[in-house]
Amino acid sequence: MEYGKPEMMAVAIMRMISDGDIVFHGLASSTPMVAMKAAKALGKNFTYVTLSDGVDHDYLRPPVVASTLTANTYEGSVATFGLDEIFDLYASGKGDIAFLSCLQMDQTGRIAMSYLGGTYDNPKLRGPGGAGSATLTPVTKKVIIWKPQHDKRTFVEHVDFATTSPPLDKEFTVITTLCIFKKPAGEKLLKVDRIFPYTTLEEVKENTGWTIDQTDVPVMDPPTEEELAALKKVDPNNILHFEFK
Amino acid sequence: MGGMWGSDLVALRPEFFRAMKSPFDGTEVVCVKALVPDYAIIHVQEADVYGNCRILGPSYQDALLARAAKKTIITTERIVGTYRMKEEPKLTAIPHFLVEAVVELPGGAKPGICYPEYQAVEWPKHKAYQKAVKEGQVVQYAQSMLEGRL
Amino acid sequence: MYEKVMSLNQATDLIKDGMLLGIGGNGMHRTPTIFSMALTQKPVKELKICGTALGLAADILFATNQADTAYFGFFGLENEAGLAPGMRKAMEGAEPKARAIEGS
């Protein structure tokens, strides 16, 4: 069946969610939003919380814009649970997964969200800030970063100013358009965990700003018909493609 | 606060963040200086004349903001009767005693979104804002958007 | 309970130079943009702005340089609307007119 990078990334996200998980995405998160709705459509029994305050909203009502601040993830919810409550929940160790993003990242998982170029007080590009990443990353069981591109400007050798960085004792995963990086709990560096069927380890190495020593990495299974159907069902307006333009 | 480890933000602003040991058990915690706004400015969909406010759809952290500030200024899509609040007091996001001013201001979040009244950004007006920022003409842009309501 | 309905003009007159304002809403959603635009017509300046996720209403005050400090977890217009143009203009480059204190 036909699929592209957006679908592969969404399916990679869907496969990381297990029954019983409490899973969060925030603003500017159209890719995890569509993937999480599709995971629900596939029958995964997890709790969907987000900053619209909605808990387990009606995922069959299709989103019409890419903004994840709308009431689309609020309507049909069974309860409300605000972002401040979500932060408390995660700080007490009860949250399982949080989907976060970044402007830049290095091999130790240091993330830049505050600025690029110059210094903090005299930046070349003033970023939007961590949007909760700094508070959530140290305490969430599984932080999953998604980035809808894979190039040397994003995955750099060293991030000067880290808005946040992953703790040593926790698992940290990064999903890109080409592959999945993983830093296992107890380790310091990201390694390529899986590549996607349409790319090669060579292409990953060529587009990453740090040296990758690995020579052989398993290939993730392509999206199944069932997974692609779930994505189409929850997202008829193709919001998934917004971040990949 | 339990989080913030691994962020360069903590060291950058010592007037605001300090890492220290908890007096109870010695674990490392990050202390954040409390911010007390002079005013919270919040746009809601329903408020009565006393300042009791209901927020429809996502509240974001507005209820919390009203509690953190010394006083709150409310702009509202419409003024409603207090009987609405009395029907289910739990749904009143901001109680009257936190509020200093209520301004009846339909369209008060435009050209942005205010669920459920207007759920799409007015892009031509927003593009005009982006242009006004580039050209340093925001005061004039604002004046035209105010349409004499000030 | 006391009645407190007043005009936009009266409400904006409450804001004085140097005040710390907490602005509600998030990104392009339910932020008090018209109140903010009314403030741009007044001589008020040196405002400090805070909020979990500052958006359009806050951006306007940085665009006019009436605000010089932002305390936030996120400051942007999100997705379709992108980064915050007023905030960026005020904070980027060799001579920034405003500074940021990020909390999250």
Description:
The complex is a heterotrimer of chains A (245), B (150) and C (104). In chain A, a hairpin with a 7-residue loop joins strand 12 (179-183) and strand 13 (191-195). The longest helix of chain A is centred in the first third of the chain and has 12 residues, at 30-41. The mean pLDDT of chain A is 95. Chain A has helices at 5-15, 30-41, 83-91, 133-136, 201-206, 225-234, and strands at 22-25, 47-50, 54-55, 79-80, 97-100, 104-105, 111-112, 115-118, 123-126, 142-146, 171-175, 179-183, 191-195. With 245 residues, chain A is α/β, with parallel strands linked by helices. With 104 residues, chain C is α/β, with parallel strands linked by helices. Chain C has one domain (16-102): Glutaconate Coenzyme A-transferase (3-Layer(aba) Sandwich). The model of chain C has no long low-confidence stretch (mean pLDDT 94). In chain C, helix 2 (33-39) packs parallel to helix 3. Chains in contact: A-B, A-C, B-C. Strand 3 of chain B pairs parallel with strand 1 (20-23) of chain C, so a sheet runs across the interface.
Stretches with pLDDT under 50, minimum 5 residues of chain A: none
Outline the low-pLDDT stretches of chain C. Answer: none
**Biggest sheet record of chain A:** 7 strands, mixed
Identify the overall geometry of chain A: globular
CATH level 1 name of chain A: Alpha Beta
Number of domains of chain A: 1
Write the layout of secondary structure elements.
The complex is a heterotrimer of chains A (245), B (150) and C (104).
Chain A (H helix, E strand, L loop, with lengths): L4 H11 L6 E4 L4 H12 L5 E4 L3 E2 L23 E2 L2 H9 L5 E4 L3 E2 L5 E2 L2 E4 L4 E4 L6 H4 L5 E5 L24 E5 L3 E5 L7 E5 L5 H6 L18 H10 L11
Parallel strand pairs in A: 1-2, 1-5, 5-10, 10-11
Antiparallel strand pairs in A: 3-4, 6-7, 8-9, 11-12, 12-13
Helix pairs in contact in A: 1-2, 2-6
Chain B lengths: L8 H4 L4 E5 L6 E5 L6 E9 L5 E2 L7 H7 L2 E9 L3 H5 L4 E3 L4 E6 L18 H13 L2 H9 L4
Chain C lengths: L7 H5 L7 E4 L9 H7 L7 E8 L1 H8 L3 E9 L9 H7 L7 E4 L2
Parallel strand pairs in C: 1-2, 2-3, 3-4
